[in-house]
User: What shape does this take?
Amino acid sequence: MNTTTATIPVTVLTGFLGSGKTTLLNRILTENHGKKIAVIENEFGEVGIDHQLVIQADEELFEMNNGCICCTVRGDLLRILTRLAQRKEPLDAVLIETTGLADPGPVAQTFFTDPDIREKYRLDAIVTLVDAKHISLHLGDSDEAREQVAFADVIVINKVDLVDPESLDALEARLRKMNIAAKIYRAMEADVALDRVLNIGGFNLSRATEMDPKFLEPEYPFEWAGVYQLPVGGAQLVINEGPDPQMDIALLPLKGITETDLAAAREAAVRVFSEWEIPLRPGSGVLPGLQLQRLQFPSFPAIFPLSLAHAGLYALFSQHHPDEFNAALQVAGEGLAPVWSHAFAPDHEHDEEITSVGVTLGGDMDGKKLNEWISELLRTKGNDIFRCKGVLAIRGTDKRLVFQGVHMLFDAKIDRPWGKDPRQNTFVFIGRHLDRSALIAGFKSCLLV
Assistant: This one.
């Protein structure tokens, strides 16, 4: 690892949903430290909202909301880091705030497995925030929550004012047993001294590989790759019924099939998988090289033609293993066997019961109706709603109402003026067994007619 002073220190802020990551981030951004800091935000959900909750200071803010940072957005992360390293004015630090459902391991991998990134950056520390009141609900059944604690260099037990001293001591003892090496601090409203979380030189690669011997083996957003010798035009991809109604693929031209060629193709595919293109339906057109395509299957067999201008070797990367869909490449109606293929370990998977519902609507909200609806919703469904947050337009004020909740606890406060931003209402729910139609109907019921 390059540890020269020229490398830019990177701090990863992680923690389960509602632990206070954005609150800590805002504290860092508003401190009078005189540093130039770039912030990379990642969200789990349909509607991006965290960038609206981060204080807009002089720092550069980048948002990634097309997936979990430990999964499909790795290409986004690589691209943003590369762009930041090319700035004329050097950065003092980079902060990465992950989604509350992210395993920090694959994020940390990026700084050791990619040569360009390793040359320009150093992973300084993984800082994990823990919600003192609610974390015990998730440590038992969430792999992500446990991984966030296990990989931490610093653990901040936040919201300590919400629990009694005995429960707090028991929680700290439990966390200490899970991660004996991390420094643990207690805080209210994520108020922790900056020298405890920034530029501390806390990340230890040896400890990470001891915890996970496969730490330096990257996870990929695809499960399979095959190399084919393809002719000019005339080939087609045939897909039969499988476990999903769609699948992401990328087709990349290759110079050869040496280990160097294949390694370069893998890293190129990671970047390609972060570039979403227009979904293709069967028979609708071309599968071009160097682009990701999200194939949709309204019926089976689904047939996708390939139109190639040049014959040669091509690597096909697929989100799922072809065997799951009895999928095959065909030329002149005959199946074509790959000259090389490899099945990768599936990338990081989330609890399939955890979903998000995002809503964005124009108009003004009735504050009284909103309060009554939210109070009743969290009272009856709070155990299943891990996190809710919103930026709302309330009748009678030209300022934003920022709303945040964790399980049955919620807080709303008037924020900055709307200014030139569009006056609209954005709400996000993350949790288990969410009733999309009921949430959207309840949200709409609070709008003024």
About this structure: The mean pLDDT is 79.
